[in-house]
Amino acid sequence: MKASTINAVFPPELEKAPPGRLPALTSLMRRQPVWLATVFPVLLTLFMGWLDAITGWELSLFIFYAVPIVLAVWWAGTVSGLFITLLCGVVWWFANVGANPYETTLGYAWALINREFYFGVVVFAVTAVRKKHDADAAQIQILEERRRLEQDIVAVSEHEQQRIGQDLHDGLCQHLAAIGCAARVLAEDLQAQKVSEARDAVMIEESIQQAVLEARNLARGIFPVHVDRSGLAAALMDLGKMMSRLTGTAIVVKDCVDVPVDAPEVSMHLYRIAQEAVANAVRHSGATEITISMNLADDELELRVEDNGKGMPPNSKNRGEGMGLRTMRYRAQALRARLVVGQRSGGGTQVSCILQLQNLRPHNDHEDN
Questions:
Q1: Strand pairing category for 3-10 and 250-256
Q2: Which of 19, 51, 258, 260 fits 229 for a cystine, CB–CB 3.0-4.6 Å?
Q3: What is the pLDDT of residues 29-79, one digit of tens each?
Q4: pTM, to two decimals
Q5: Could you tell me the residue ranges of all domains in the chain?
């Protein structure tokens, strides 16, 4: 069923942004000393003067003097551009001094002033474009750095959750299980001796077993699955069973395609999105049934969580996002996926995370830069 989206679609911030780096030649020239970056524009200006001299006044090439000026400004800055502007004026003067149609030197000088004004306009226009370009590149670089930092933070968080979950399972759960076994032996001994405290020992043993179960569920919630290439579908099935047992809400997992995932962090992000969406539905929607599904369509994978609850409040846009929705949005951005939260056509809420299949592979931001 299609959802009528009332919340925004959240694309990754940098999904279609241009690279935050300069072209190779520009980057190379800007790393050079100013005088060295100006050498080529100087030589090009002299070449343009030679061409201008041999073509004559009728085929004036003065407009092409802008090329070395543009290169000088783009590579070495405004000062170099102004220097090339003066050089272009001098070269143009001597290239056309014998072929110009002006009857007086004053008229020819006025023509030179007009051309120098044109060259100056080129300098300041290119300077403005360069500043805008550099500002955009710096902004994109900041966004890339922020995204990498956010991914590192989540990676550290997931690592700590994995460690805590494993410590709970391998440490606390095992100790509780051992204590439970000792309590069972004690209860059996007391029952054999027909001691009245045997009932209390049985209750203690049952309480310990319940604590073991809760500790294991907690460990599984903190670090639910060792994600391999085919572990996500099974993890979603376990999530549905565990949440259904803990909350009493019917949670149905269906149509979960078994998609090979090369990057464990991708599976973990998808699992956390589903986990948060289910938790939100249980806490806020009043739903009696929640459905988790994962489908393939063309070159996209869609993870969907739907409920039959009361849906989203009409003023949800004005109230802003809660922590759960912000977390899901961030995880979707980390996957370069789209997160869509909206009303389900049959009533209730639908959360969809849609990502390209190519993003199921590991992505190295550092290689991109």
A1: unpaired
A2: 260
A3: 888 899 999 999 999 999 999 998 888 887 888 889 999 999 999 999 999
A4: 0.52
A5: 1-14+226-369, 24-151
